[in-house]
Amino acid sequence: MKIAIYPGSFDPVTNGHLDVLERASRIFDQVVVAVSSDNSGKKTLFDCSQRLELIQENIKNFTNVSTESFNGLLVDYANKIGASVLVRGLRAVSDFEFEFQMAQMNRHLDSSLETIFLMPNEKYFYTSSSLIKQVHLFGNRMTGLVPDNVALALSGLAKKNNF
Ligand code: PNS
């Protein structure tokens, strides 16, 4: 059985992420969306349990997808759950440098874990969680770039903070 891991911060999950996830779910037997709970690197808008919950509501229709948080090194978590493939979404050339570094480092740490890149539909090429946060927190508009529960959560935060 081929288990793939789809890791990220998912702060918050976007339709671009869900597009990549749907593609991965067609290729692998099981896909685990691994939400990084490590907050040493960057400060997140949503805490880990909120990010998990926002994903959870959007994977109900997939029979072979689950989500979980992880801490520490990704290769160790992948090993723990028996994943042999690491899936990352690749949008524009600008993603490449960072993704290449990460894939090489993960390969250095564990050569049995293979990274593959999946491209989302081109309508999501310019979607990123950080741009989405700006647009939704300050603009409160329907963009079609995030699932409904994420749009709701963002407008809730905007109201709470009087943006
Ligand atoms: O969505 P992001 O923020 O680009 O995801 C980055 C993530 C969480 C996949 C990456 O930071 C990660 O793997 N963190 C866990 C710690 C780790 O293993 N670091 C070494 C990776 S080269």
Discrete helix count: 6
- Rg on CA atoms, Å: 16 Å
Describe the strand arrangement of the main beta sheet, using strand numbers. Answer: 3-2-1-4-5
Bound molecule kinds, no repeats: 4'-phosphopantetheine
Structural class: alpha/beta
Low-confidence stretches: none
Largest sheet at a glance? 5 strands, parallel
**How many strand units?**
5
Q: What level of helicity do the residues show?
A: 40-55%
Overview of this structure, please?
This protein has 163 residues and is of the alpha/beta class. Helices cover 44% and strands 18% of the residues. The protein is built from six helices and five strands. The chain has helices spanning 15-27, 48-56, 74-81, 93-109, 129-139, 148-160; strands at residues 3-8, 30-36, 65-70, 85-89, 114-118. Strands 3-2-1-4-5 form a five-stranded parallel beta sheet. α1 links the parallel β1 and β2. α5 (129-139) crosses α6 (148-160). The longest helix is centred in the middle third of the chain and has 17 residues, at 93-109. The protein is globular, with a radius of gyration of 16 Å. It starts with a strand and ends with a helix. The model has no long low-confidence stretch (mean pLDDT 93). 4'-phosphopantetheine (PNS) is lined by residues 7-9, 36, 38, 73-74, 102, 105-106. 4'-phosphopantetheine is lined by residues 7-9, 36, 38, 73-74, 102, 105-106.
What would a concise description of this structure say?
The protein is of the alpha/beta class and 163 residues long. 44% of the residues lie in helices and 18% in strands. Strands 3-2-1-4-5 form a 5-stranded parallel sheet.
